[in-house]
Amino acid sequence: MTTPVTPTSPARTKGGELRAKVARLLADRPTDTLTIGDMARQLGHSHGAVRNAALTLVRRGEADQSGTGQPEFRANAKTAAAAQTAVISPPGTHAPRAQAATARTPYTAAATARQTGPIRRAGGQLYHPRELADLPDVEALNRLRDADVPVLLYGPPGTGKTSLVEAAFPDLLTVAGDGDTTVGDLIGEYTQADSGGYVFQYGPLVTAMTEGRALLIDDATLISPKVLAALYPAMDGRRQIQVKAHKGETIKAEPGFYVVAGHNPGVHGAVLTEALASRFSVQIQIGTDYDLALALRIDARVVRVARHLAHQVELGELGWAPQLRELLSYQKTEAVLGTNAALANLVGIAPVEDRDAVADAVTKAVGIKKIAPLTLGKQLPSSAARQPPGSVGSAHRGRSR
Questions:
Q1: CA gap 183, 43 in Å, rounded
Q2: Could you count the other beta carbons within 10 Å of the beta carbon of residue 343?
Q3: 247 near 241, Cβ under 8 Å?
Q4: pTM metric for this prediction
Q5: Which residue in 10, 38, 195, 377 has a CA-CA distance of 20 to 30 Å to 387?
């Protein structure tokens, strides 16, 4: 019989290492079914961390789960192999990190590495790094993560805040914040199982902490300050949270856990509180890189219009200007529907109160007399509509039989 480990102060594990420990424990007892409590006592780790590791093994097909109430786990043919390696599992469609959290290489000021080429994000899109403090932005973010310096990215929607974070951190988990975001959306909550009972489903904050992954709180300033307060103990020297909804369980952050947040100052309802701002030692303004837009071969006239409108926004004369997202959308629309339709769509996506100013700027730049939002025009007649009344039956009678 295996001697239980006293659960006093378990050593920190890097991402995936606890999963290997759970697999090893199951593989050593191939005829037994073990509960979360059994494994937590044997390994000396929290129930929540062990549960996440065990469920990940099941999702990967490296262990079997049974039990209609309290889940039980048992080894299968793949468990022994899973016990030999510690690999971070991908979050949904995201790819695993190239290095384990504790194996990250710290940078020094003299480091010369440069990630200047396009980086393929988890969804397949390419991200083109921009300069930040004389470094490519993805490299700067990785250095800040290595130093455990939380970052707040702020700027208008569509400037590439989320894209930057996804390119920098392939192990990313994301919380899309809004006014309805709850503590349960961050930490977890009870959900009904197929059996009819209720089980506690851990949220992205707990998953990021226990697996040593990066967590993006997107649109953080739309989330209630009372909800965000649940995040703060994980970001300060405590590096842990209490899951009050689940027996007051304590979750400790593994090495590599890192928080980055996004803020859109111009969005209605977005409030950057002092409590939130103080948690992020570095705050980076993100705007549209018009030189990058030109390098991506977006119509120079449209880029010039966007730059001009952005200047008007800065002066307070206008409320909206196309950002990189809209410029990339323009390029795709132009390739499919042509220049005139793409220009009309660019005008149409502007807020109503700014639409006339945008249309005026576009017409002056491209030399077209009038540009209106993309609109349906005359109805194209179908083959049936072009035929006179009663002709359908005639056409049928004229067919060969």
A1: 29
A2: 26
A3: no
A4: 0.64
A5: 377
Give the tens place of pLDDT for each residue, 117-147. Answer: 789 887 888 899 999 989 999 999 999 999 9
Give, as one character, the DSSP assignment of residue 89: P
Two tokens, residue 234: 């994980």
> Cα(234)–Cα(242) distance, rounded to whole angstroms?
10
Closest C-alpha among 257, 258, 243 to residue 51: 243
d(CA 78, CA 23) in angstroms, rounded, equals 9
Residue 47: predicted pLDDT? 66
Q: How many other CB atoms sit within 10 Å of the CB of residue 304?
A: 15
Provide the 10 A C-beta neighbour count for residue 314.
11
Contact between 188 and 316 (Cβ < 8 Å): no
Residue 102 clears pLDDT 50, i.e. is over it: no
Number of neighbouring beta carbons within 10 Å of residue 41:
17
Distance (Å, rounded) from C-alpha 36 to C-alpha 46? Answer: 9
- The label of the residue with tokens 């405590």 reads 238
- The angle that helices 47-59 and 36-43 make with each other, rounded to 10 degrees, is 120
Q: What is the mean pLDDT of residues 41-67?
A: 77
253 and 209 Cβ atoms separated by less than 8 Å? yes
Tokens (6 digits) for 212:
């040593």
Contact 189, 232 (CB under 8 A): no
Tokens of 107: 């940078």
146, 119 Cβ separation under 8 angstroms: no
Q: Which amino acid, 369?
A: K
- The CA radius of gyration of the chain, in Å to the nearest whole number, is 27
* Integer Cα distance of 322 and 297 in angstroms: 16
The H or E element containing residue 106 is none
- Give the whole-angstrom CA distance, residue 145 versus residue 142: 5
**HSE-CB for 249 with a 13 A CA cutoff:** 22
- How far apart CA 224 and CA 97 sit, in angstroms, is 31
- β-pairing, 173-176 with 214-218? parallel
- Which of 39, 49, 48, 61 is closest to 13 using CA atoms? 49
Q: Where are the beta strands (DSSP E) in 28-115?
A: 34-35, 64-66, 72-74
Q: Nearest to residue 122, comparing CAs of 171, 176, 56? A: 171
56-91 pLDDT, tens per residue?
Answer: 788 778 899 886 446 788 999 999 888 875 443 333
Could you give the CA distance from residue 244 to residue 252 in angstroms, rounded to a whole number?
A: 14
Contact 14, 87 (CB under 8 A): no
